Amino acid sequence: SSSISKTSTIKRTSGESTEKVSPIFTQRRINFRFPAPITHMAVANDCLLIALSNNSLIRVETEKPDAAQQTIDLTRFYDEKIHSLFMDPSGNHVLVSLENQENIYLLQNTTKFRSLSKLKGLIIDSVAWNYQSSKHGTKEILIGTNRGVLWETEFVVPEENRLFITSPIEQYAKQVFNLGREAPVPITSLAFEKFRLPGTKDHRCLIMLTTPNRLYQFIGTIPHQSEPPFFTNIFQLYEGKPPSFLELPGNSDYSEISFYRYKFNEPPRSFAWMAFPGVYHGDIDLHSDCHSQSVIKNADLFNYPVSSSSNPRAVLLTEFHVLLLYDDCLRVVCTLNGQLIQEDHDRYSSSKLRKLVRDPIKQTIWSFSDQNVFKISVVDESRDVWKIYMELSEFDKALQYCQDDVTKRNLILYKEAQSLFARKEYQSSAVCFAKTSDALFGETALRFLEVGDSDALRIFLLKKLETLRVSTDRAQMAMLLCWLVELYLEKLGSIKDAEEGFDELQEEMRRTLAQPRFKAVLDDCQKTIYNLISSHGSTTDYVYFATLIRDADRVVSHHLSRNEFTAALSYLMKHGSAPLIYKFAP
Predict the structure, then answer these.
(1) Per-residue pLDDT tens for 482-502?
(2) Nearest CA to 538 among 572, 488, 489?
(3) Which residues of 64-74 are buried (b: 16+ CB within 10 A; e: fewer)?
(4) Whole-model pTM above 0.70?
């Protein structure tokens, strides 16, 4: 294979260095050769199905591109051109709609096909496949026509020895709703999702579809004992009232919706609707209020890139990006901030790029032009997500995506601390400043001194102490402990008369000093701490500190000076040494 595109220069800048990085999305041409131009393509479960302008279909295994291609010739029975081509997620079922309103079912792993008599007279623009399908059948599916009519049907595959029996493939075909009553309107894309309601066998169902200017939602419940057509349980709720829809302005004859699923067997998490004004993107919450008429959350419309002279032909949504296919290039936009991150131009063909498709099981992404098929590789899609979330001030999400990179983590915490400080949330900012090595100690401490928030400064010093080690930072720890003691004593002195909070704050100071890992550090700075306590006249704290560091001489001297002889004797009996006892003996 060879690269389709000359990717726009992408650079990542950090400080003074500029580093070129490879694109996240890379489009490569696959070396297929076809006897006629490509008109349609579908992919599912490692199987590519390609429709050509000569009314033939080519089946290719994507994992074995050099293997023999299987050709299905439709011209023996059908002269009309192919209007649309659909393949279910399992790759077992194929539906072909012709311009003359004939519809064909292609039998799996064969070149045989059957006419769908119950669907004759329909030109099909969209199909919502059932993700519970198997090789034996599709289960219930929805079909959208070029005139705005929705049909429900189910395909059942005959056994091998019954391929030529004339019983129809479609078990039933029923019209279930009509959006084109006032005027015909094509249903350009269509999907449904069912999930079991808690504590019941019933299913809640969401149906989403698009017309050129509208996005519709149909929401309801399908009882577990329902008979086909199943979706009438949903659509009958809307017979007397209009369904919920979003209409966007513009003169367009086509729109398209793409869904993102984290895994094949999981419900969609988000969607992107390619409409005339731009891409309407949002989250899908299937567990929203059961009375709600919408499952769309956090939606926003972002414009197409300014470099675009026309609207895109196709859209495909990934976890963090929207791929937009134009006649001559692929553009990639980040859904988190609406920014264009890549622009790849086709340099292999003068023919127009036509469509984007994704394998729902294998998650591979493909595109095609009249002459070529391309595979789009995705490498490390989330690599810059941490930075985007940081720029959006969504710091918790940024930390989730920094991949335990210490440099990135420090930068995120520093930015969060600055943001909190700017909002005057000084104590919260102190916690963040203390966690990052990007914050200069003196500069940060000065911030809190300048705004006069001693509580925030105390929190900063406490949290900073938690990040230091006695083996390497002993001198700094001694300095911080002395500073903390001074801040505690000043605060205790200011609230002593009010008494509210005094006991709690004093206990906090004592718990801090009593931490076992500070024992060696206190030996280095005990003189300074004694002087600080003495200058504030706190006798109880003086005795507590002397007792904490086992300074028996000071403890006994204190008790004797206050004629507390019993207390002095009690302490000497527990902690006194022979020289100390002789010193205080009468």
Answers:
(1) 999 999 999 998 887 666 788
(2) 489
(3) eeeeeeeebeb
(4) yes
